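quick one, 321 residues, struct below
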Amino acid sequence: MERSLSMELVRVTEAAAQASARWMGRGLKDEADGAATSAMRDVFDTIPMKGTVVIGEGEMDEAPMLYIGEKLGNGYGPRVDVAVDPLEGTNIVAAGGWNALAVLAVADAGNLLNAPDMYMDKIAVGPEAVGMIDINASVTDNLRAVAKAKNKDIEDVVATVLYRERHQHIIAELREAGARIKLINDGDIAGAINTAFDKTGVDILFGSGGAPEGVISAVALKALGGEIQGRLLPQDDAELERCIKMGLDVNKVLRMEDLVRGDDAIFAATGVTDGELLRGVQFKGTYAETQSIVMRAKSGTVRFVDGRHSLNKKPNLVIKP
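---
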């Protein structure tokens, strides 16, 4: 992939973030998601690439755009797999909460796992603890491993977990072990990425969330030198049958090379609402401010991009609910 593609992709997440941020706190998650998806699609059409959506908003008959198999880009440039989450945290935006992102990832064609839309058990860490975690081990054993890798006591380790009934046993074991916990209501892509940045204060992610989000997180952590492990968790016979048809072993631990192959991939995200890592969109009357992150696995380059966008010169961004 051309290195210039990195900055082109930031334009896509910036547009999606600005469109969805207009809906913050209005209690209308579907409208926020639709705005992000539409804006992302419009800008993708201008990007020099031949992209195919492998993780998107649904199947062709279920999603009006950014569906799995859709072609993106202007038809020139590299052939790439595209994974999109136009609004990671629809409920977050609806409630005006923390850590909503507009997110995408790309890799050379054939290199992203076409993950089915189902749950995936996950564990993720930043660079210091790579090679130390094991999804098959207990929560306590993984805490000990991360504490040792980061030269901390377990009592100083911060674990992030989606606040769900299905995670009560994880939360109980974390508390029994004495670790600190950051419970999040939504947005486990942000939760996974935060493990790789000291300023967020997060050391490890536990628990199950969306499998597509696991693949997107893997691209980010590959660029950051971190690690994520996953295992598919089909909830019924239909989901199990879908895995079998896709040639996916539900008993297999999915590691970094299973989720994103090769040595090149790009991740981009723009904050929609404020979070530990990125500021949310701020509207200033005649302009808007955004903060984004873009990273490339091949070079290990991580860029934070502050954007100022004239709303007079980009009338499509002036559209209001």
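Residues 119-259 form a domain with the D-Maltodextrin-Binding Protein; domain 2 fold (CATH 3.40.190.90).
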